[in-house]
Amino acid sequence: MNNKVLIVGAGAIGGFYGGLLAKAGADVSVVCRSDYAIVKQQGYRIESHALGSWQFMPNQVLRQASEYQGQPDYLILCTKVTPDIDRVALIRDAVTPHTTIVLIQNGVEIEQEIQLAFPDNLLISGLAFICCNRLAPGEISHLAYGKLILGNLSEIDEPKTQYLRDLFLRAGIECLVSADIVASRWQKCVWNAPFNPLSVLSGGLATQAILQNQENFVRRVMQEVCTIAEACGHPLPANIVENHIALTRDMPPYKTSMLLDFERGHTMETEAILGNAVRAAQRQGVDCPCLQSLYVLMQLRELQIRSNSLLN
């Protein structure tokens, strides 16, 4: 049985999916720093519109991965992908030869760093399609969706990937295994590329308000991402833009993760979501003026955050 799971970066996303795995019978431990004291004492309180409410008490609550007692079958990394987070250093001390590393993170072309550091470990790349927020230390609100897509970065049909999928299914969440997880990452970027930065640049508008007022621009950004993905060898479904537009219209009022980071003065995932896509376009000789403009403007926002932190 591959039941020992260590979640590194157990905020809203990590806490929610960790709680689901525990419901399915897995032995789940978490690394959380900012919420450590509360989670150590009382675990997580998860409120879900779709799945109900429950308390999740991790087996081990840790400040860092090196404190983990045992050998994790799965190490699931749920941190932000930002330049100030050394993902390899965060997990190195807990990775054993039989540990499967799972990335549930945003962005495109984010896997190479982990592959190079742990070439002999199975690496599963994962995407969460979810509206989920941290309300307070140890309190998570699951607003909508929750679908997971997992995929190996090798061509091997790996039983451990299937087993992890089955654990999530057992907990009541949709989980699929993708034969081309890189294309799936581009598919998510089609939504993230316009809505995450525009939520920041608009001063905090919710996704529906952005769509209602700037649908044409949103569509242009989405189409540019589709063109880049195809140039990289990962063509996306012809209806992907329409599907994402329809999905956004049906969403409850929602603050994007990038907006929440900006409001807290945290580094945002500008490079993982926008920068990597722009660099892929440049590599392939693809013009992406709308996407490039968003990237430049978000770089200025990142500069604003760094400047403010130096003043405080």
N-end to C-end Cα span: 50 Å
* Percent range of helical residues: 40-55%
Structural class label: alpha/beta
Low-confidence stretches: none
| H/I helix tally | 11
Q: Give the beta-strand count.
A: 10
Task: Write down the CATH class of the largest domain.
Answer: Alpha Beta
Share of β-strand residues: 15-25%
The chain-level mean pLDDT equals 94
The largest sheet is: 10 strands, mixed
What is the CATH superfamily of the largest domain?
A: NAD(P)-binding Rossmann-like Domain
Question: How many domains make up the 3D coordinates?
Answer: 2
What do we call the CATH topology of the largest domain? Rossmann fold
Radius of gyration of CA atoms, rounded to a whole number: 19 Å
At CATH's second level, what is the architecture of the largest domain?
A: 3-Layer(aba) Sandwich
Order of helices and strands: EHEHEEEEHEHEEHEHHHHHH
Shape: globular
What would you say this structure looks like, in words?
With 312 residues, the chain is an alpha/beta fold. It has two domains: 4-179, NAD(P)-binding Rossmann-like Domain (Rossmann fold, 3-Layer(aba) Sandwich); 183-311, N-(1-d-carboxylethyl)-l-norvaline Dehydrogenase, domain 2, CATH 1.10.1040. The protein is 46% helix and 20% strand. It contains eleven helices and ten strands. The protein has helices at residues 12-23, 36-42, 87-91, 112-117, 159-170, 181-201, 207-231, 240-250, 257-263, 270-284, 289-311, and strands at 4-8, 27-31, 44-48, 52-56, 61-62, 74-77, 100-104, 123-136, 139-152, 175-177. Strands 1, 2, 3, 4, 5, 6, 7, 8, 9 and 10 form a ten-stranded mixed beta sheet that branches. Helix 3 links the parallel strand 6 (74-77) and strand 7. Helix 6 (181-201) packs antiparallel against helix 7, helix 6 (181-201) crosses helix 11 and helix 10 (270-284) runs antiparallel to helix 11 (289-311). It is globular and about 50 Å long. The N and C termini lie far apart (50 Å). The model has no long low-confidence stretch (mean pLDDT 94).
